[in-house]
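Protocol step 4 of 5: obtain the predicted structure for the target chain.
Materials: sequence only (see below). No template structures provided, no constraints applied. The aim of this step is simply to have a reference model before the mutagenesis design in step 5. Sequence pasted as it appears in the construct record:
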Amino acid sequence: MIASLRLQADPSMHNSDRPLLLVIDDDEGIRKITREMLEERGYRVLGAASVGEGLRLFAERHPAAVLLDLRLPDGTGVDVLRELQRRSPGIPVVVVSGYGSVSDAVEAMRVGAFDFIEKPIALERLYEVVDRVTAPVRPRPEGEGEKVVDGSRYGTVGSCVPMQRVYQLVEMAAPTRCRVLISGERGTGKELIARAIHALSPRRPRSFIQVNCAAIPAELIESEMFGHVRGAFTGATADRKGKFESASQGTLFLDEIGDMSLLTQVKLLRVLQEGEVTPVGTSENRPVDVRILAATSKNLVEEIEKGHFREDLYDRLNVVNIALPPLRARREDIPALAEHFLRLACVENDLKPKRLTSRAVDFLVQLPWKGNVREIRNLMERLAILVGKDEVTHRDVMEALQMTTGPAALDDAPMPLKQARARFERQYIVDRLSANRGNLGHTARELGIERTNLYRKMKQLGIQPARPATVKPRG
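Step 4 output (C-alpha cells):
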C-alpha cells in the first residue's frame, strides 16, 4: 500500500532536488517510522531528538518543511515554531503530537503552524498534509484575501497599523515577479521581510541567496555576484558561479544596496535590463532567471542627489517599496516583542521560563530603541541569562541597559546643553513613571509640577502615558 502511494517525482528531478523534510521528535521509534513512511513517498528526511539539534539541522540544511512534536525535552514546540517562523518566514511547519488537545492545536495554529496531526500517525493523513504543504505556492485568485492578525505568518511579531500595511504589501508582492525595495533603519527586520516574500512566492522551492553589498570588498563584489572563470585573476584556480547563477529560478536578496559602488551599479543595471550575466574573465553571456529583492538603510533619493546612486537603477529596483517603521513608531508592539524574545531566549539557553513584570513592560515601552527590534532581542537574551528569578523587574532592565551604555555614557558624549538636558529629563520622567506604575498624579507630585504640565512635558519628550497598574482588592 505504501509503495502505491509513492511520490510521483519528475523523472528529470535528481534525488537532491526532492523536498527535504525535518522531523523533530524525541521519540526514536516515531522518528524512525515517520522517516520510513516519508522516504517511501519519495521525500528526503532528517531527524532530530531535541530543540537544539532541530534548530541546528534547520540552519544547516534548510528543509522545505518541518514536522514538529509539541513536547520536547528541552523546550516547547510552540516556542520552536516561533523561532522557525522568525528564521524562515512562511516555512511550512506541521505539528505532530500525542498530546494533541484542542488548546494545543489552537495555540500552534495561531502561532503559524500549517496543520496538526495526532499520534498515532495515519499514513494517508500524513501524505495528504505533507504533499499539500510542500506543493509549489500559486498566486491567489483576484479578490481573495486573508485577514492579517499578527506577523507570525511572516516570521515577525507585531500587529500595529504600520506593520499591517507592511504585511499587506508582502501579500500583494509575493506571488508576482516584481522587484521590491525594502527600506528601513538597521535592525528593523528587512531581511525577514525579504525572506517572507520569497517564502510566500512560487519560487519558494528554489534558493534564497543573500548578498550583503556593504560587507564585500569593492574589488571582489563583481566576481561574487557574476562569477568568474579559471585564470580570471590571481587565485582563480577554477570556474565559480556567482550569486546570480546560484539563485537561478529563485530569489536574490541584495542587502544594503546603497553601499554598492557606482561601477558595480552599472553592471547590475545591465543584468536587470538584459537578463544575462558575464562572469569575470570571459565575454560569454549567460542567461539568468532571478527575482531581485533589495534593501537599504540609506535614503536612496538623497544618495541620488549626492551622485552616490544611479537614478536609473533606483527606478528598476523600486517597483514596489516596503518601508519598515522603526520600533519607536510601533511602541504598542513592544510588549509582545519583549515577551516573545524573552521566552525564546530561555528556550535557546536551556533556562527556566521568565516573565516581565508590568512595570518592566511599561519601562521598555518608553525606551528610545535606536537599535530597533535587534536591540530588544539582544536585551531580552541578556536578561534571560543574567536574571536568576522567575520575574524580570524594571530594575533588572535598567541594570542590563547600563551594561551596554555604562552609567557615565551621558557624561562621556559631548552634546549641546539643551540636548543633554532633554535627555536627562526624559530618562528621569520615564524612571519615575515606572516607579509609580504609570500614575501621572503621583509622578507629578513627586516632580513638584502640575499634572497638566507633566502631560505637556511628556508629549514634548515623546513619552507615551502608560496604563496604571490595577490593584486587586484582598479577600
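Step 4 remarks: The chain has four domains: 3-134, 152-323, 327-407, 414-475. The first strand starts at residue 20 and ends at 24.
Proceed to step 5.
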